[in-house]
Amino acid sequence: MAAASSTGAAPPPEPLGLREASQAQTPATIASIVMPSQDPKEADVSSQSPLDEPIHSRSIFRVTTVMVTLFCTLFLSALNTTIIATAIPTICSDLGSAAGYSWIGASYVIAATAVVSIWAKLSDIWGRKPFLLLTVALYFVSSIVCALSSSMGMLIVGRALQGVSGGGLGSLVIIVISDLFSIRRRSLFLGLLHVTWAVAGGLGPVLGGAFTEYLSWRWIFWINLPICGPAFILLFIFLDVHDPKTELAKGIKAIDWAGSVCMIAIMVMVLLGLNFGGATYPWDSPKVICLVVVGGLMTFAFVFNEGRIAAHPILPLKLFRRKSEAACLAIGFLQHFVLNAAEYYLPLYFQAVREASPLGSGVLILPLIITEALTAIATGIIIHQSGRYMELIWGGVALLTLGNGLYITFGAASPLGSIIAIQIVAGVGVGLLFDPPLIALQALVSQEDTAIATATLSFVRSIGVSLSIVIGGVVFQNGMEREKSKLQDLGLPVELADVLSGPSAAINIDLIRTISDPLQKLGVKAAYALSLRNLWILCTGIAACSLFAVAFIGRKDLSRKHTETRTGIKEKGGNVPTELVERDSRAAADGP
């Protein structure tokens, strides 16, 4: 905004934000963390831009309503990645399709991963609000499709639609928060956001087991409706972010159609091939080879299009050319691979080795989930108060590696106390790496690239999640196949040894309880523990790679200045930002 001139011209309207009541970190304070600038020097932020215009103030009630609603929608997206796991055997039995075991989870993850960056780019062109509302509406409809499914095919279609909408929710919620708050202050909200994600990941198996055991697996999907409906209405009324009013024809022309098609093709073919391999078809099957190879070759077409052809690329390659940004993306991928492997396969360890019920396994993983949540909250507060993130990243990668290394000690007779303690160590490492890599990435890129950088981090994190399930399953299945001869040597019937090995090992853990001979039962438990040990070794190596990546992240001061993103089409691509300045009574003491 231009400052008042010396000739006595009236000063332009000051940029307005949220109102801050006090320094205390109460929920009301967090909700009102941005306030209008009263200092003329701060108000004189520049601007020769014709796009400068007053920004409407947001009341505490408005921002609280928006933030709570965003947290609820993200909770649903996160919940559906884990809530289905404990119900899959029952669903397959009810719908009469054992072949759908892997498809129920894979269809969601593949679809979500394929569209993350596409949703972000569409919101850059036409604005955040319409596409956030669209994802909520699509999630509502797809939940109904899943709940009413009368066949496995119908359920898989519904899960794929859920994945398309869930992928959009996961990235757009973070992008909207990044639009609303300065990089230093948004760390508080991102911390709470990742608490929501962690809690959903922990509650998913518990709720899935409870619904399946006491009600019906269909309630896993019906439960989404009472949240999606009100969320749509509240966001429609209260969410006020920039609306670029982009013309339909210009917007359609600006879409990176070739990049979008290549992105979807790569994700679907590669992840589908990896999901098929070793389970539905042998690894040397022509179907598996063609999917993986063609998907891999499509990567070259995608890179060429993004670097040479696309005017508005959905995945700017410049993010991967600069070492600091590339290192942030690498840590996001590595952390989510390791995190999801633990949250997905620790319940298997608890059910197979400790003979816990689905509900009990969800309770046993709570130390990991609670620690992640508490650490994420603390991390957000630390970044907000100090503006520092590098120390948190270093601590996170060290504890992440240590915690996963300690998972290797889990055996058939491991004491419960050590299992809980090790989960706490790993949980601190995971929690320290939720926000700092994202904050570092957003600090390193320009405001016009914030949305696409955030979506790219969500994209690589989604790939980490997808690969952890697929590769983790392959490692576990191969381990159980190698243990098959040992199970037969224990005197286990051939038929029982067959169903407790290879791809069928994970879905037949209830049979362990039927083994009456103590030595045979202990041998079966040891086989499961050893097979999962191979996965923990892999995850430890992957976590250790993050120790190398963190060395390349650059340090940058986190300013209290806020650039509120103005979406739309720029001549050379990207967003049209206008800078606002936040005033904080502690700015002089805290620094930038």
From TrEMBL:
Task: Report biased composition (Basic and acidic residues) as residue ranges.
Answer: 563-573, 580-592
Residue intervals of the Major facilitator superfamily (MFS) profile domain? 66-558
According to its UniProt record, where is this protein located? Membrane
Gene Ontology cellular-component annotations: plasma membrane
What residue ranges are annotated as transmembrane? 66-88, 100-119, 131-157, 163-181, 188-207, 219-242, 254-274, 286-305, 326-347, 359-383, 392-410, 416-434, 455-476, 535-554
Annotated region Disordered: where?
A: 1-24, 33-52, 563-592
Source species: Exophiala mesophila (Black yeast-like fungus)
Q: Which PANTHER family does the entry mention?
A: MAJOR FACILITATOR SUPERFAMILY (PTHR23501), TRANSPORTER, PUTATIVE (AFU_ORTHOLOGUE AFUA_5G14490)-RELATED (PTHR23501:SF158)
Extract the GO molecular function terms from the UniProt entry.
transmembrane transporter activity
| Pfam families (alphabetical) | MFS_1
Q: Which UniProt keywords apply?
A: Membrane, Transmembrane, Transmembrane helix
Q: Where is it mainly found?
A: membrane
Q: How does it sit in the membrane?
A: Multi-pass membrane protein
Its family remark reads: Belongs to the major facilitator superfamily. TCR/Tet family.
Q: What is this protein called?
A: Major facilitator superfamily (MFS) profile domain-containing protein
Origin superkingdom: Eukaryota
